[in-house]
Design a protein that fits this description.
Structural class: alpha+beta
Number of strands: 10
Strand content: 25-35%
Mean pLDDT: 79
Strand order of the largest sheet: 6-7-8-9-2-10
Helix content: 10-25%
CATH topology of the largest domain: Lipocalin
Shape: globular
Radius of gyration: 25 Å
Distance between the termini: 50 Å
Low-confidence stretches: 1-24, 30-40, 215-222, 224-235
CATH superfamily of the largest domain: Calycin beta-barrel core domain
Length: 244
């Protein structure tokens, strides 16, 4: 449209064509900027952010033991957990991935090691980096995305829970195969998160020291230990639970 208008002006007003061209050339970028801002859709904070699948992602290489070295949750302004160590595995007869993990509460002076687990389905076999866990009635859908991984040293996970008429709940793990991950790698992975509405000022380092305290040291039988864990978790929030 602008090109046709300029050509017409050149033919009709030969003496002023350069001024007209300069005026329009200066106006076009500003006009396009206003159009871009006006047409940009406002993000729906009740839905999970759009995540592109990893190309050639190999889920089997991600399996095994990890350490969570940095942790974020949108509902928390301080780190509530320590010693979080997930182990990922798959079922031999189903397209799913499970995570068993241990963790402690930072406000527990005894450092009692607790246990949790979660299983996700893989809704699209061609997108094995996206997992979905459907919670109980009216508890919404829990999505997990593998954002990046080199498999042998580090991985970055994004968790997003959706519930009708509620803000989404985001959390993220920076994971390492060892208790400590290099600073430059952590920086590289952290820089990937703001695009998913992760506030890095609340992305906390998780120290993996003094994590050897287990329930076996209490001298209790397994049934009693399970009861104690259940009572403890009922009083404090499970790290994979959402809060609205």
């Amino acid at each position: 449209y602008f090109v046709l208008s300029l050509e017409m002006c050149k033919k009709k007003v030969q003496g002023r064509d350069y001024k007209i061209i300069l005026h329009l050339d200066e106006s076009v970028p500003l006009l396009l900027l206003f159009l871009d801002v006006g047409l940009r859709k406002r993000e729906d904070k009740t839905k999970c952010p759009h995540v592109r699948p990893i190309r050639n992602f190999d889920l089997h290489q991600l399996l095994g033991s990890w350490y969570v070295v940095q942790y974020y949750a949108s509902s928390e302004e301080a780190l509530s957990y320590g010693c979080m160590r997930p182990v990922f595995f798959m079922s031999p007869d189903r397209l799913d991935v499970s995570m068993n993990f241990t963790y402690t509460f930072t406000d527990d002076p005894t450092g009692e090691l607790l246990y949790g687990n979660i299983t996700w389905d893989i809704p699209e076999p061609k997108r094995p980096s996206h997992w979905v866990h459907v919670r109980e009635t009216n508890e919404g859908v829990y999505n997990t995305y593998v954002l990046d991984s080199d498999y042998k040293s580090w991985a970055l996970l994004l968790h997003c829970a959706e519930k009708s008429k509620s803000p989404r709940y985001l959390s993220s793990f920076i994971m390492s195969r060892k208790p400590i991950l290099e600073t430059n790698v952590i920086t590289y992975l952290r820089e990937k998160l703001p695009r998913y509405d992760i506030d890095l000022s609340y992305m906390f380092p998780m120290v993996q020291n003094n994590c050897s305290v287990t329930n076996k040291g209490l001298g209790l039988d397994p049934d009693t230990v399970r009861t104690i864990i259940k009572q403890s978790v009922s009083k404090r929030r499970h790290p994979m639970k959402r809060v609205h």
